[in-house]
TrEMBL record:
This is CopG family transcriptional regulator. InterPro entries: RHH_8 (IPR041088), Ribbon_hlx_hlx (IPR010985). It comes from Muricoccus nepalensis. GO terms for biological process: regulation of DNA-templated transcription. It comes from the Bacteria.
Length: 143
């Protein structure tokens, strides 16, 4: 029996504590343009410019993104799995098929054995936060 999670919370604008750090490389001329816009007060800083640019591109391609989310049967948002929740799944003889666009967190007290016993597959477009041992235990189930 495979269960699909339906209790996903809608994403809100990110605050400082729930972001993922990325690194990008820009040409000097592009970076100069960004710095001019910051200096002229259009943006608070480089990060503000980059976040705004990314959000504008996401909005520009929103129809394609919505179609892709639906085609892949992804839940949108933040999803946390606690040890207690996974133990209930195991007791019921079930297994989860986790498919999320956003953030999946697996509690730090979840053991690798419990994760393997209760998570049949894991597809995350975004970020997965779990212990290294749990990530290793689920590596063959990640898409």
């Amino acid at each position: 029996m495979v269960l699909v999670a339906n209790n996903v919370q809608e994403l809100r604008p990110r605050s400082g504590g729930d972001t993922e750090k990325i690194t990008i490389n820009l040409g000097y001329v592009d970076l100069g343009h960004v710095d001019l816009l910051v200096q002229d007060g259009f943006y608070a800083n480089r990060t503000d410019f980059i976040r705004t640019a990314i959000r504008n591109q996401i909005e520009r391609h929103s129809d394609a993104t919505k179609q892709s989310v639906a085609r892949r049967s992804l839940d949108l948002g933040l999803r946390h799995y606690s040890r207690e929740e996974l133990e209930r799944v195991r007791a019921a003889g079930g297994a989860l098929d986790i498919r999320v666009l956003g953030l999946v967190t697996i509690a730090s007290d979840v053991t690798p054995d419990l994760a393997r016993a209760t998570i049949a597959s894991l597809a995350v477009v975004g970020a997965l936060q779990a212990s290294p041992a749990v990530k290793a235990a689920l590596a063959d189930r990640m898409r």
